[in-house]
Structures are given as structure tokens and as C-alpha cells.
């Protein structure tokens, strides 16, 4: 059985699609998978079980990347095509079954929209796939002892909680849990590093960003007792890794993109839904939720 799975360009949306893939892996043990995604998300699927091919789609003018994908896939007869991008590509491939998710914005949790593609309610939760090499990198970077991770960046400046608030939050958490160290996670590129720079200046901070694959980052997150970060791909990756995750929301909608996982929470800046300035989010509110999550995480580890 061969399944073509067309998923997102952005890391966060790609993470949210992993639960559906995991469901297919568990329920169709004879299936082999071809995954098509954007370059940023590609590393998320490299360790996926029964991955036959990974197609990295680079956007081209006039949507010609969809023609590129069709050319690569048209020679195969597919048992199932799942298209979470809402493109027309799946309709022009030979397939026994097609499941095309409607494109565009709509209300409700994005992870629920993904589950609806196969009629799954509740939707399957996102997962991460790592291997021993990824875990060895995580061990080397983080070392021994308990770690708290911060994700102070995002793909849009409007979603970024001010860096000085993250610094102040760290001092609050460190007073309560003095044996924890801080790991700072961020994406590749000078812009992301600049956003993270004030936190990297904190004494003893671990630089855990910029140069790692999604799988290596997931392995690091699996070792952390808490992740606090803006609405971003890193936030979704942390939740999928099972890390207690606190998402920070302002002008993006928590009703659509709240972190999905077993141990997650989120705080929303005061103001109109999806329009609130994130600078209005108080340190005290974030710290209170973070301490609850961290305390529960430590209690669970000690049990």
C-alpha cells in the first residue's frame, strides 16, 4: 500500500499533521509513505517509520511547484492521497482514495481540521520521530541536570513577546527552581538569533538554536521540564515532544493554534481575539502558569 501525504510548508502546521500520519502508520501496517512538504519542515519527517520518499517542495512563481509535484508523482498509482494543502494536485493523480482538506482560514482548532480529513474525533495528537543520533546530540548540547527551554522567536514580529519579558520570567523561574538551567531555542538565520540574543546573554544559558534539525531539536525538548514560547513551530514541536508547554498568544488565535498535547497550557494577551498586542501580556500571568506546569512536571518525574 502506498500513501502520498502532502503537508505544510511551515514547521508548525507540519507538526500538527504528524498525528494523522502516526494514526496511518499504526492502523495500516503494510503502508509505505511518500511525504511532500516545504524545506523548513522536511527534517521533521526524516526519522518517520516506513518513509519511502521525502519530496521537498520549494515554492515557485505562479504555483509551478504544484506542477513539479505532479510530475514526480504521476507515474505511481496511489492507494491513498491525502492533501492537507487543499491543492488540485491529488485530483490529477491516479488514486483509489483521495482525502483533500479544504483550504483557507476557518474557525476551530487546526489539529481538529486535520483529524476531520479521516473523520477522526478526537483528532490524533502530534508526535515527533527521533533516533539515537538525535538523542546523542541532545545529550551533548544540554548536558546533565534539569533544563527549562524558552522559544523567544516567531515568524512574525507581532507574535513575539518582548525579549526583556522572557529575561524577567527566567529570573522568576530560576528563583523557584535554582537547579534548572536555561536552554534558548530559535530557528536558523540572523533574524532569529537577534531575537534570541538577550536571552543568550543570561549567565549559563545554553545556545540550543539555529543549527539543529527539527528531529535534533525535538530530542532536546524531550529532555526539558518546561517550554515557554511564542506561538511558533517550536511551540508546536515542544508540545508534540511531550514537553510541558506554555504558549504565549497575542495577535494570533489560541482557538486555532493553541499547543496540542498531553501537558499544555496557553495564556492570551488581553484584547480582541486574534488582535491583542502581545506586549500586553503580563510577566506575572505567564510566570504563574509556568510555575504550575513546571511544578506538575517535577512532581510527575518524582512519582
TrEMBL record:
Keywords annotated in UniProt: Glycosyltransferase, Transferase
Alphabetized SUPFAM superfamilies for the sequence: UDP-Glycosyltransferase/glycogen phosphorylase
Protein's UniProt keywords contain Disulfide bond: no
GO molecular function, one term: ADP-heptose-lipopolysaccharide heptosyltransferase activity
GO cellular component term, pick one: cytosol
Pfam families: Glyco_transf_9
Keyword field contains Glycosyltransferase: yes
Biological-process GO terms, alphabetical: lipopolysaccharide core region biosynthetic process
Protein name stated in the entry: Glycosyltransferase family 9 protein
Species per Swiss-Prot/TrEMBL record: Acetobacter estunensis
Taxonomic classification: Bacteria, Pseudomonadati, Pseudomonadota, Alphaproteobacteria, Acetobacterales
Amino acid at each position: 500500500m502506498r500513501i502520498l501525504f502532502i503537508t505544510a510548508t511551515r514547521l508548525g502546521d507540519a507538526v500538527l499533521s504528524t498525528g494523522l500520519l502516526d494514526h496511518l502508520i499504526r492502523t495500516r501496517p503494510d503502508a509505505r509513505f511518500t511525504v511532500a512538504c516545504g524545506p523548513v519542515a522536511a527534517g521533521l519527517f526524516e526519522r518517520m517509520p516506513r518513509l519511502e520518499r521525502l519530496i521537498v517542495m520549494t515554492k515557485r512563481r505562479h504555483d509551478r511547484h504544484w506542477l513539479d509535484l505532479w510530475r514526480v508523482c504521476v507515474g505511481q498509482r496511489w492507494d491513498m492521497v491525502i492533501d492537507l494543502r487543499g491543492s488540485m494536485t491529488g485530483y490529477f493523480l491516479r488514486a483509489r482514495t483521495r482525502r483533500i482538506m479544504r483550504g483557507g482560514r476557518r474557525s476551530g482548532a487546526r489539529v481538529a481540521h486535520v483529524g476531520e480529513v479521516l473523520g477522526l474525533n478526537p483528532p490524533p495528537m502530534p508526535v515527533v520521530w527521533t533516533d539515537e543520533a538525535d538523542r546523542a546530540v541532545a545529550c551533548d548540547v544540554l548536558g546533565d541536570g534539569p533544563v527549562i527551554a524558552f522559544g523567544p522567536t516567531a515568524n512574525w514580529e507581532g507574535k513575539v513577546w518582548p525579549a526583556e519579558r522572557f529575561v524577567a520570567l527566567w529570573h522568576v523561574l530560576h528563583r523557584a527552581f535554582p537547579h534548572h538551567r536555561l536552554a534558548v531555542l530559535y530557528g536558523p538565520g540572523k533574524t532569529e538569533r537577534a531575537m534570541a540574543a538577550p536571552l543568550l546573554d543570561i549567565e549559563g544559558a545554553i545556545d540550543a538554536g539555529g543549527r539543529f534539525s527539527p528531529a535534533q531539536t525535538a530530542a532536546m525538548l524531550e529532555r526539558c521540564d518546561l517550554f515557554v514560547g511564542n506561538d511558533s513551530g517550536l511551540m508546536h514541536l515542544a508540545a508534540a515532544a511531550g514537553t510541558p508547554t506554555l504558549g504565549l498568544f497575542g495577535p494570533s488565535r489560541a482557538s486555532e493554534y493553541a499547543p496540542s498535547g498531553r501537558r499544555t497550557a496557553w495564556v492570551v494577551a488581553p484584547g480582541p481575539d486574534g488582535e491583542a498586542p502581545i506586549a500586553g501580556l503580563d510577566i506575572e500571568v505567564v510566570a504563574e502558569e509556568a510555575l504550575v506546569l513546571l511544578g506538575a512536571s517535577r512532581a510527575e518525574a518524582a512519582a
